[in-house]
Amino acid sequence: MDVLKTIVNYVLNLGGPVFVPLIMFIIATIAGLKLKKSVLAALTLGVAFSGMTLVVNYMMDSISPAAKAMSKIFHLSLNAIDAGWTGVAAITWSYKSAFLFFPLLLAINFIMLTFKWTKTLNVDMWNVWNKIFTYVVVLYFTHNVFYGFIVAGIQIVLELKAGDMWQRHIEDLTGMPGVTVPHFVTLFAVILQPLNKLLDFIPAMNRPFDSAALQKKIGVFGDNTVMGAIIGVLLGFGAGYSVSKSLNLAIQAATAMTLFPMISKLFMQALSPIADAMSDFMKKHFNGREVFIGLDWPILAGRNELWVTVVILVPVMLVFAMLLPGNTVLPFAGIINLSFVVAALLLTGANLLRMLVLGIITTPIFLYGATYFAPIITNLAKSTGTVKVQAGQQLSWSTFEGPDFRLFFAKAFTGEWWAIGISILWLLGFIWLYIDQNKIKLPSQRYVLAGSAQSSSTTAAPSETTTTSAGSLDDLDDMDFSNTSKSSASNNATKVSLNDLDGLNFSNTSKHNNSR
């Protein structure tokens, strides 16, 4: 066990920009790509990872202070502060059994590939933390280790099937063949699917409304750079910034919106020759069988619809945080709602109008999910010792990932009949989604105006970000969730504001450059 733990820690310490290109170099070499091309493709992929990480962090660092300023204008002061996905990931990686989920993912993926139950080979190893956190949630409710592993295993299977389902859409949206995104965030499409189907009955929702279509309709104002500047300056004014500071935010947002598609082209440049070599290899040795390479969601980050949506939803989330009865979470670190927008992008085929409507409708789900799971996250932080939480504070994640799946399945394994019923309905919803997405038109063909041969949807190359904080796997022993309850944690917590983030001590958290 100690040897396995050491190996896993070493791999995690390499970081996404090193480990994933290394794996892709090995795959390319086995597939018969020439050494020179394999090296160049791997290095280009590493550059793309690092470049996209820089731009995404730049975007978030620009937007987050504006969100904090808005919260002050709204006079928000709530019980739980928002550590974002990076904070929760750091805590989760520090869980004592975390290293066991690395081989679990590989084993399930290998079995499913062997029996042709999936076409996806998932090399996105850092998002194992998602499975670990699901295990911790189930353990919290059931006090049963076996149930935790079962639900985490179910999640892995569903992610791989989602990778199969989304591949053709991802290729259409990005122009990148042979890659997919077997990420947990895409499973929120199960909840979005019926809502998106209802939008089919609204004529305006069935028109082209991606970035390219928008630019055709409104000219220069639909240009990526101009859109970024407009959104940035409006966000600055909404945050109460001065004209000078608002204009600076406009330039920062415009810079990010301009660089996203530019850097995303590096992913296409790196992965296209590897995908071609893999295709030739499979045709030669496995009777033409398809295998898709599963990567992290940011290969989609070149689609500006994604960033326009999440930035516009920032003030929406703050308004909901203020108005929703019972909400205890103060959005900050997780206010860029990546837990929603990736599934929305894929499900709607990058229809910006649909994405915004779905985002407004479902934002309360994330805030209430964050409120409900705040005691669990707080107790996990205290138990692991990874993050020092001040007395009277709670820790949460305002855009809590997969609140539906984790709540329903954790409660189902406690024997609660309502949860068992809803979990079955959720799985049926996934089957419906899977069937529908395998037969629905591709994004570039979906929204066609009368008399038009094609929609205005265009392909943009993807991009990738890899930043995760992860704690050492060596620090933890006894987990004790028994004394934590939602109600007591919520009632005993004192009011805090965003300034109380300064009271959190992350000094015990060791950093890993992992991918979300």
Automatic annotation (TrEMBL):
- What keywords are assigned to this protein? Cell membrane, Membrane, Phosphotransferase system, Sugar transport, Transferase, Transmembrane, Transmembrane helix, Transport
Q: Which GO terms describe its cellular component?
A: plasma membrane
Tell me the segments the record calls region Disordered.
Answer: 457-491
E.C. number, please?
2.7.1.69
Boundaries of every PTS EIIC type-2 domain copy: 8-434
Q: Which PROSITE patterns match?
A: PTS_EIIC_TYPE_2 (PS51104)
One of the record's GO molecular function terms: galactitol transmembrane transporter activity
User: What GO biological process, any one, is recorded here?
Assistant: phosphoenolpyruvate-dependent sugar phosphotransferase system
Composition bias type Low complexity, residue spans: 457-472, 482-491
Source superkingdom: Bacteria
Regarding the membrane, this protein is recorded as: Multi-pass membrane protein
Answer yes or no on keyword Transferase.
yes
Localization recorded for this chain is:
Cell membrane
Keyword Ion transport listed? The answer is: no
Q: Which residues cross the membrane?
A: 7-33, 39-60, 72-91, 97-115, 135-158, 178-199, 220-243, 249-268, 306-324, 330-348, 355-377, 417-435
What protein is this chain from? PTS system, galactitol-specific EIIC component
Q: What is the lineage of its organism?
A: Bacteria, Bacillati, Bacillota, Bacilli, Lactobacillales
